[in-house]
Amino acid sequence: MPHLSPTLARTVSNRHGVVTVEELIRDGFTSNSIRRLVSKGALVICHSRVYRLASAKETFLSRCAAASIADPSAVVTGVAAGRLWEFRHIRHVEQPIVLVEHDRSPLNRGVLIRRTNVLEPEDWTLRPDGIRVASPTRAWFDCARDMTDERFERLTEWVLDHHATVPALWRTRRRLNHRGRPGLARVNRVLSQREAWQRPAGSGLELIVLNALEASGVRGIVRQHPIRLPDGVVIHCDGALPDIRWAVEIDHVTWHGGRLDAQRDKGRDRKLRRVGWDVDRVTDVELRERFDDTIRELVDIIAERRRQRAA
Predict the structure, then answer these.
(1) CB-based contact 108:92 (threshold 8 Å)
(2) Statement: the pTM of the whole predicted model exceeds 0.85
(3) What CA–CA distance (Å, rounded) separates 61 from 14?
(4) Is residue 51 part of a domain?
(5) How far is 111 from 92, CA to CA, in rounded Å?
(6) CA-CA to 57 of 20 to 30 Å: which in 100, 131, 230, 293?
């Protein structure tokens, strides 16, 4: 095992066991002693002149740190960056996806290289553990190439709810709007469905319900439609049909749904009725247990509402 000074040991520990040749030499090791440590298995080669202590387990984080240290311009991005930011709705990856500029030599092991001609300072941030990770908006954009439209739409809602605004996503899209860029068409399709004033949906479940209603023949559903209550407060229901003044809300009783939430929602529903709106609430529990029946019930309610309004 290498015997590091306390200072270097702390640095390496905070960096998931990754160390460079230059750091070892400054710490008193010689080139020969480093080679012996490698031959004995005490140091594991990650990249050129970058090692991991054998006592530190190889992990996704150690791979990200090694790539960031081996190439000062490399940035972990896409679904790999999404894992670092704890994005929802992305697939789990163990191999870092790393952006490098076109004139850089690729890292030699353990990473998936993707090249770019647009990598600005606003596109990345340096974590305390030495990992250079794409910003949430750049990571979001780069996720598009590896996701379906449906999952990317859910991810977009989540990113809007936790990290960004709609204008911020559009700015990122404009900067990266180059023909042939992977994922650009998907970004355009998803963003074109939103207006800048729209608030993000609270979770992917809202999108699933609204998409299921549309698939069942319901037309004209507006997401996060603004409605002004009698007291002047503007609320945004999960989905609405403005022509018949009907709205649907998805309640996540599994996550919260306490007494105060229920009281607030009932008071809001009374105010909606005062301005001529009807609202139906469905819960994540009933959607999980009887999704198809719940959607059919909502479709029937909408049809009846249309008949009443037409009478």
Answers:
(1) no
(2) no
(3) 11
(4) yes
(5) 15
(6) 100
